[in-house]
Structures are given as C-alpha cells and as structure tokens.
Design goal:
Length: 741
C-alpha cells in the first residue's frame, strides 16, 4: 500500500480551513487540521461539526449527483437518465444557441448563491454569450457594504479587529458566533471575556450579543435611525475627531443636520432602544479608539433602509477617526493578483448587451449604467470593482421577464452553486418562472428542489476534488486557499471545466479559456504577484501586508496627499455622486408601511425577520445529512416569552406563519422562546425535506417550511433605488397555532 500526505482545504463553509489529507493507494482516508497554513485554529477544527462531511461526501454514491443527468418525461417528473458528458454538453450548447438566435443573448440568465463556489467562470461564460443577466443574491448579501463603503471612501474597507490593539468593537446585524466558525470569532470571544468593549446591535440576544458589554436591540429595519442617534450623541457631546473631520471629511454640517433631525427620544420611540443605551454605546464607541465596526447580513436585508444605514455606518467610522488606522478600519488595497474584472472578461460585454440588463435604466448604481459612473470614480486610483456581481439584476425582474416576456423573454437559466427555489425571495414566483423557461441547467452536488425542476443536472466537483480559493470578493489584496487532494470522483467535474467546455463548444476562442482546469487557472490568477502555484500551496496565502494612513501618503506625481477616490478627495458624509444617482445627499430613513407605520399588533400579528444563522446548516445545505438533522430536527421560529404569551403560544408549539397580505400561503415552523424584541419573530430559512418524494408537486417538501414563500422581491423600486435590496428582515406577518387534526 502507498501512503501519501497532501495539503488541501475543507470546503463545507466559506472559511476553507487548511487540512492534511492522508491518501492510501490514492484514496483519501483521513483528514487532519494543518497548523502550518492559514486558516487554522485548533478550536475551530474541534468545534466544527461539518468537516467530517469531506470524507463522507467524497465517495458518496447515494446522495451526491455523480453523473450528468437528463430529465425524462415532464419537467418535475422526478425521472432522470444518465447520459455522457458529450451528450449533455452538445445538447445544452445547441439549445442555448437556438434560444440566443431566437430571443437575443439576454434571454439566458444565470443564478449564483452564497460564498462557496468560484463564480468567475460562470460570469466569463455569460460575458462570452453576451448576456448581462448574471443573477445573484449580492444585493442582499455583501453588495450593500461594498457599494456604500466605496461610495463614501472611494474603496471598500475591512474591520481591522486586532486583539490587544482594538479598544472597542461594534458588530451590527452580524452574529459571528454562529455564522462564522472562524478564528475571527474565537478572538472576539476571548476579547469579550477579558472585558473588551463589545457593542452588539441585534434584534435578538444572539450568541454574539450574549457576550456583549452593550446590547442594542433595534426593532427590525430601524437601524438608520439608531445609527443617526449615535452620531447625534457623538457630535452633541463633542466626542468626534475634529482633526480628521476638518482635514478629511466633506459635508459634515449636512451630516450633522441629518443626524439632528430626530431627538434621542424620537429615535428611541422608533427603534425601541432606550436613550440611556444609545448614549452609553455612542460614548463607548467614540472614546475608545481604535474601534472596529462591522456590519452583516441582518442589515443587508432591510430593503429601502439598507443603503441608507450603510452610509451612516461609513460616516460613523469616519467622524470617530477610525479610517485606515490599525485596530480600527483598514482601507483595502486593490488585488495585485488578477482582478475579478479580468477573470470575468467583463470588458468583452458589448454596449448593446449592457443596455439590455434588466436593472437598466432605473436601478441606481447596481446596473451597467450606474457601474460605469462608479467605476470612473474608483479608476482615479487605478481600481475597478468586480463588475458582474455589482451589476447583477434583481431576481424579481428576471423571474417576471420569464413569466411575462416583458421587457423580453428570459427563456434559459444556468444555476451554479445555488438553490433559488429555497433561498431566493418569493418561492412561488421562482417556481412559476422555472415553469415558463425552456431550459434549466443546474450544476450541483445534491438533488435540491431546484435541481429537481431542472432539465439537466451536471455533477459538480466539491471539496478535496478541486483546489480552494478565497479572494474576498476581489476587492482586497489578499487571497488564500490550497490544492485538491485528489481528482474528481465518479464523473464529477470542476465548474470551471464544465463552463470552459460549454463555451468552446459554442464557439468561444480557446485564448479566452487558456487554463485547462481550475488549478491552472488559479496559478494564472496569482502569477502577477510573482508567486507560483507550488509556493502558494505551501503557505496557503498571497498578497501584501496591510499598511495604513494611505490617504496621507504623498503622491509622487502631484506632490499632494493621495486622499480618497471620491469627487472631493475626502470621505463623503454628504454625497454629491449618490445625489446624482437619485439618492439624497445624506441618508434618510424610509418607514416601511405595516412595519414602521400603520403596524397591526392585534390578532396574531407580528413582524418577522428570517434566516438568522445557526449551526449545523448552511442556507439550504446539509438537510440530507442524518447527523445534522438529528442535531437540529425542526425549523424553529423564535420569539420572546411576552410575545408568545400574547399569541397564546408555548415552546415547541407547531405554528402556521403567513404574510398579512397573503393569508392563504402558510408555512409550518415550531415555537422557540428566546430573548428578543417583543412583537418580532425570527423564522429559520433554508428548510426542505430531502427524505420526502422528489419532483412535482412538492419537490421534497419545499413548500412546507420554506420561509421564502413569505418573502418578496422589490416591486416597485425602493424610494432611493441605489441597489434595489429587498426585505428578508421586517415583514408584517400573522402567526397561529396549528390545530391537531
Ligand atoms: N429568507 C431568507 N432568504 C435568504 C437569506 C436569509 O437570511 N433569509 N440569506 C440569503 C443569503 S445571504 C444567501 S448567501 C443565500 C444563499 O443561498 P444559496 O447559495 O442558494 O444556498 P445554499 O444552500 O448555500 O446553496 C448552494 C447550493 O450549491 C451547491 N454548491 C455548493 N458549492 C458548490 C460549488 O462549488 N459548485 C456547485 N456547482 N455547487 C455548489 C450546494 O450543494 C447547494 O445546494 O440565501 C439568501 N436567502
Ligand atoms: N451556520 C451557518 N453559517 C453561515 C451561513 C449559514 O447559512 N449557516 N450563511 C453564510 C452566509 S451566506 C452569510 S451572508 C453569513 C451571514 O452572517 P452574519 O452576517 O453574521 O448573519 P447572521 O448570523 O444571520 O446574523 C445576523 C443577525 O442580524 C439580526 N437581525 C435581523 N434583522 C435585523 C435588523 O433589522 N437589525 C439588526 N440590527 N439586526 C437584525 C439577526 O437576529 C441575526 O442575529 O453567514 C454565513 N455563515
Ligand atoms: S469551519 Fe468551515 S471550512 Fe472550517 S472545517 Fe468547518 S466547515 Fe470546514
Ligand atoms: Mo450570504
């Protein structure tokens, strides 16, 4: 027997922990955490329940998709035939060509999901076809932060939390204790344990908030009001950084006026956070520098208030003098490896295709027109944001185009690393759109409800079978990862390889896909840094060490300080650029009807938030794994004891939840009492039941507990249509006990 040890990475969450794989006669038999490479932490490896999946799933011939499959019979029949790769790729290529010839390239859409797959191959494929419609969940995950930080500072930032240096940390709408099983969270937990100032802003007393020295618990979606209230205290009590504001901030007086629009009492009334707590948090944050401030998914999903909140958070960092200081906020550098723009081949997309993007012309910056203007701005520092994520159309527009044919027919979709039937808003609309399409192709590991509705399901290579690569969205000069431990098993293929072969079959030039597989492609990606792939696999990381105060560096060409890549060269607390894109010069709070105004609090009425992360699942993934289901067998809806009492409910009760505007659509979850704002409930997302019958009409129980039956895309557009974020947090619902039959 030959035994070999190979470096590799886990891929069962976006964190990509480093492991050593033991191979016996070429078969992976053991994994051991690798302390020599980033990212490694003994406690992470010890506590994570997912990494044993690497071995279970690698050789799994029951729950994994292992061969190309073609639908047999009606769509959703649940019947499949195994076909060869050549048959699958030839047929898909010819159908795509036919649909493009009939309706134009924009008829093909794509759908991506959370941060697990490498998505640029799909985007490069879409560029080649000439389709502007790369759909994604970016507008409710990540894009709002990238966009608003860039609009305010000229580029994106990172929370520079450093144990021993950071004096205060604010976590806003993020719960790393459960969502981020990483060293980052372990460091925060240690910091909090040793008495560090930790301010957590969360509607629920999350596991993170439970460690906080100050917990602010806003009513869903009122965060902009709360952030302005903090700014008001900081300015009123003269706790702001005068020097930084005078030298490096534009529009302070306008920002001040906006912050003073409401009294603290009015803010307290709206947010349900006490004046004392607002004051305590503001004082702690402003007087303990350096201070980090990180926001998360909870506040990426508050619809019209998402972009405004992120503008105010960006301003808070600035007025407290925490920009580009060690231990506070790091202003990112552009990548020295190939950028997302280059990898996506975005420049190849024609003007005509861009004009057909479904977000044109009315979606502020999250559109090709908006992107071009924003890009001209960052280009001043030689920087380009990743185009394809930040122009992805609102899913609701893609689904509507499929159903109605307006403004044109979307007839085909390629799904890569996503499960839209469960994770995208408005499940019934997603289903109707799928039903109306002529071609659905899904690259998958398992037969998700989306795969079950597809025409072709192609077996994607997963962890250990392909190299791992995390480039932080391509907006910073840091990437990490490592090699595959073995070749893809069965007939699985890397997403990159599938898309390359499809593109070549459809007539794309080989020079656009110079690498034959993902390993070669990643080697090409990091080559500009001078690092070889072999060297990268030893250290597991690439990029340059962080440096600070970059705005003060003297530009040798002009002899002036470098400043910020904005119109004024300063941090823009009032923003003329956003004003030119249809927003206010300063951020405003937009009350949502039924939530912030005219809220019904009678007869089972509540405000719902969704998707608070929990272990062991990841979005809609791992529900087919028996050990996970035993750990967490039922979907739960959290609420305070007072709310439960008002509703006549108790722990464990089976309940039906509906939207107030569509009472006929109900989902089933189970009551769980937790400490959170009264009148609010927190429903789990991602639920389907893989053990139930596949195919129509129920698609493995996808319409039973799936909370996205109760969410909707953004129609009509937000009052300030900058990104077009929709609402997952803050939905007027009704909840009632399910009567036993
Ligand atoms: N109501 C509500 N809805 C939400 C959210 C919420 O909080 N509330 N959160 C939203 C957010 S932030 C996100 S990111 C999305 C997540 O939504 P999705 O990304 O759609 O959800 P996942 O379950 O992670 O689906 C990923 C699928 O891709 C497959 N997969 C994983 N890696 C790869 C790969 O490398 N290649 C291929 N081909 N397939 C792969 C997995 O088997 C899985 O079925 O959900 C969004 N939806
Ligand atoms: N276990 C697990 N880990 C995951 C994932 C998973 O599905 N499972 N998904 C991954 C993905 S795709 C993402 S994007 C990240 C997300 O990771 P995080 O950004 O940390 O998101 P959450 O852990 O959901 O924490 C968001 C918090 O916001 C709170 N919240 C909800 N509404 C509001 C509001 O209106 N205001 C405020 N202030 N707070 C609110 C919720 O109570 C919740 O505790 O996690 C990743 N990690
Ligand atoms: S934290 Fe994520 S990457 Fe690390 S071992 Fe667990 S599932 Fe794998
Ligand atoms: Mo996400």
């Amino acid at each position: 027997m030959t035994t070999e040890i190979k470096k590799t990475n886990c891929h069962y969450c976006g964190y990509l922990c480093a492991f050593d794989a033991t191979l016996e006669d070429g078969r992976v038999t053991k994994l051991t955490p690798d302390p020599t490479r980033y990212p490694y932490d003994a406690s992470v490896a010890q506590r994570c329940v997912r990494w044993p999946l690497n071995l279970e799933k690698l050789y799994d011939d029951t729950t994994r998709v292992n061969y190309p499959l073609r639908r047999k019979g009606e769509r959703g029949s649940g019947k499949w035939e195994r076909i060869s790769w050549d048959e699958a790729l030839d047929e898909i290529a010819s159908k795509l060509k036919q649909l493009v010839a009939e309706h134009g390239p924009w008829t093909v859409a794509s759908a991506i999901g959370g941060p697990h797959a490498v998505y640029w191959p799909l985007h490069r494929f879409m560029t080649f076809i000439g389709s502007p419609n790369n759909m994604g969940i970016g507008p409710i995950c990540w894009n709002p932060r990238i966009w608003m930080d860039t609009m305010t500072y000229g580029w994106s930032v990172e929370c520079d939390f450093r144990p021993g240096l950071t004096q205060c940390l604010v976590l806003w709408g993020t719960n790393p204790a459960e969502s981020d099983n990483s060293l980052f969270w372990r460091n925060i937990a240690d910091y909090a344990r040793s008495g560090g100032n930790l301010i957590v802003v969360d509607t629920r007393l999350s596991m993170t908030a439970a460690r906080a020295s100050i917990w602010l618990h806003p009513f869903p979606g009122t965060d902009t009001v709360l952030a302005y209230a903090l700014a008001r205290v900081i300015i009123e009590e003269d706790l702001y950084d005068h020097e930084f504001v005078e030298k490096w901030c534009y529009g302070f007086d306008e920002f001040k006026t906006a912050a003073f629009e409401r009294t603290l009492e009015e803010a307290s009334e709206l947010t349900k956070v006490s004046v004392e707590d607002i004051q305590a948090a503001a004082r702690t944050y402003a007087t303990n520098c350096p201070a980090g401030l990180l926001s998360g998914r909870g506040v990426d999903q508050i619809g019209p208030n998402t972009a405004p909140l992120h503008r105010v958070l960006a301003s808070l960092r600035a007025i407290t003098g925490n920009i580009d200081v060690p231990g506070g906020t790091l202003l990112n550098e552009r990548p020295t490896f190939l950028s997302e723009m280059e990898l996506e081949g975005s420049a190849r997309l024609s003007q005509e295709s861009r004009e057909h993007g479904l977000n044109e012309p009315d979606c502020g910056i999250q559109s090709y027109r908006g992107f071009a203007k924003a890009d001209a701005r960052t280009a001043k520092l030689g920087r380009h944001l990743p185009m394809r994520y930040l122009t992805s159309p609102l899913p609701v527009r893609v689904w509507n185009a499929a159903v109605t044919g307006e403004p044109y027919k979307v007839s085909a979709i390629i799904v890569d690393g996503a499960n839209p039937l469960v994770t995208y808003a408005d499940t019934r609309l997603v289903k109707a759109a799928f039903e109306a399409m002529d071609l659905i192709v899904d690259f998958e590991f398992v037969m998700t409800p989306t795969a079950q509705m597809s025409d072709y399901v192609l077996p994607a290579a997963a962890a250990l079978e392909h190299p791992a690569f995390q480039a932080m969205g391509g907006v910073s000069d840091f990437c990490y990862g490592g090699p595959a431990a073995c070749e893809p098993q069965f007939e699985r293929r890397e997403d990159y390889v599938i898309l390359r072969e499809l593109a070549l079959r459809m007539g794309d030039a080989e020079e656009n896909w110079p690498a034959k597989n993902l390993t070669e492609e990643l080697a090409r990606t990091i080559a500009p840094t001078g690092m070889s792939w072999e060297a990268f696999t030893v250290t597991g990381q690439c990029g340059n060490p962080a440096h600070y105060y970059k705005h003060e560096e003297i530009d040798p060409e002009t002899g002036e300080p470098r400043g910020f890549a904005t119109e004024s060269g300063k941090v823009e607390l009032a923003n003329p650029f956003l004003a030119s894109m249809g927003a206010g010069r300063t951020a405003r709070f937009f009350p949502v009807p039924g939530v912030h105004v005219d809220r019904d609090e009678g007869d089972g009425c509540v405000t719902m938030i969704t998707g608070a992360r929990k272990q062991p699942y990841w979005a809609s993934s791992y529900f087919e794994v028996p050990s996970m289901r035993r750990r967490h067998p039922k979907p739960t809806v959290g609420m305070s004891a007072a709310t439960a009492e008002r509703l006549g409910l108790a722990e464990g009760d089976e309940v039906l939840i509906s939207r107030q505007d569509t009472p006929e659509v109900e989902i089933v979850q189970y009551v769980h009492l937790e400490n959170m704002v009264d009148g609010v409930v927190s429903a789990e997302y991602g639920w389907w039941y893989p053990e139930r019958r596949a195919g129509a009409p129920d698609y493995s129980g996808c319409f039973e507990s799936n909370v996205n039956l109760l969410t909707r895309g953004t129609v009509p557009m937000d009052p300030e249509p900058l990104i077009g974020t929709w609402i997952y947090n803050g939905i007027p619902c009704r909840i009632r006990k399910k009567e036993r039959e």
